[in-house]
Design a protein that fits this description.
The chain has 323 residues and is mainly alpha-helical. 66% of the residues lie in helices and 1% in strands. It is built from 11 helices and 2 strands, in the order H-E-E-H-H-H-H-H-H-H-H-H-H. Helix 2 runs antiparallel to helix 3 and helix 9 crosses helix 10.
Length: 323
């Protein structure tokens, strides 16, 4: 994977960052507001370092200090890929992302995370004749974490459904939500779901909970009956791991940072902007519910993904004993 990492870092990612830096196009955005274009050089630096380290791996092999550098660059690329999940959700239900440049950066950085991880683990090969272990349950503590992640979405889903079915919460009704969603560029599909009493984020939360339990229960390791020709076959490890890692890397830090901001706003250290709500107090109430759900679910997803990865590692076949 070393040569591929060199191509990604030296050709794709650093060139992308350099072109944006020279043209003054901001790569990073916060809350829809462009950040300073000076931060574009962070992208250039991450890509250049990845290329140099990847070339060193190709030339000298994967030494311990090179592995440390790979993991360090991997973390930096992960930071640059933050909010990729939000981009995907916006593309699914909105009319477009806030910035295509920022979305491209998130996607390229996420690809870099995968390549850097694969390069750092390139010596961790499965033994000859290795096979997938039998489907298994996660340990009790991991299932408790999954239960906490599920329960965390109950207040969030209840709030959304209460709005969808005509209730008023935080000074806002479904009619006002539809107007706000339309003004913010929501797609017709999103607006239609809202008008039917089906909140799209609740549907995504349900899928997220399904993913969470698939990571901790045996049925998440084999294809179910409704997959017909695939029934009974093993689920490739990357299939649930990819959305799990993207979700955990986005929702956990997003929720934790949000909880910290909500706590500061509650004690009056900062002022919560009303945004689309009638008052700061209304916005704070909704933020507490949403950020708590994201933080707890994101942490539970990370714990469940780690357990799934460890439980599904290929194991060597036990040699048959001579009779």
């Amino acid at each position: 994977m070393g040569p591929t990492t060199v191509v990604w870092g030296g050709v794709a990612y650093s060139a992308f960052g350099l072109s944006c830096a020279l043209s003054g196009t901001p790569v990073f955005h916060g809350g829809g507001v462009p950040a300073s274009s000076t931060l574009n050089w962070f992208v250039v630096a991450v890509g250049a370092v990845a290329a140099v380290v990847g070339a060193a791996v190709v030339r000298y092999g994967l030494s311990p200090w090179l592995r440390v550098l790979l993991w360090t660059v991997c973390v930096l690329a992960g930071i640059a890929a933050f909010s990729l999940l939000m981009d995907l959700i916006t593309l699914m239900f909105g009319q477009g992302v806030d910035s295509w440049v920022a979305a491209t950066n998130h996607a390229l950085a996420a690809i870099g995370v995968l390549l850097l991880t694969a390069t750092a683990r390139s010596r961790h090969r499965s033994p000859n004749g290795a096979c997938a272990p039998a489907p298994s349950c996660a340990p009790a503590r991991v299932q408790i974490a999954a239960a906490a992640g599920t329960v965390a979405f109950v207040p969030y889903s209840a709030m959304k459904l209460f709005w969808a079915f005509g209730g008023t919460f935080a000074g806002t009704s479904i009619e006002e939500i539809l107007v706000i969603s339309k003004r913010n560029g929501a797609s017709e599909f999103w607006l239609t779901l809202e008008s039917w009493g089906l909140d799209a984020t609740v549907l995504l939360a349900a899928l997220g909970v399904l993913l969470l339990w698939g990571l901790v229960r045996p049925w998440g390791q084999v294809f179910p009956r409704w997959t017909l020709l695939l029934h009974g076959r093993r689920v490739p490890r990357w299939l649930p791991m990819a959305p799990a890692l993207i979700g955990a890397a986005t929702l956990a830090p997003y929720g934790l940072l949000g909880i910290g901001y909500c706590a500061l706003a509650t004690v009056g250290a900062v002022t919560m902007r009303p945004g689309d709500f009638p008052s700061s107090g209304d916005a704070l109430s909704v933020s507490w519910i949403g950020m708590t759900a994201f933080a707890v679910y994101g942490a539970a997803l990370a714990i469940a993904a780690r357990s799934y990865w460890l439980r599904t590692r290929p194991v060597g076949r036990v040699p048959a004993q001579a009779e």
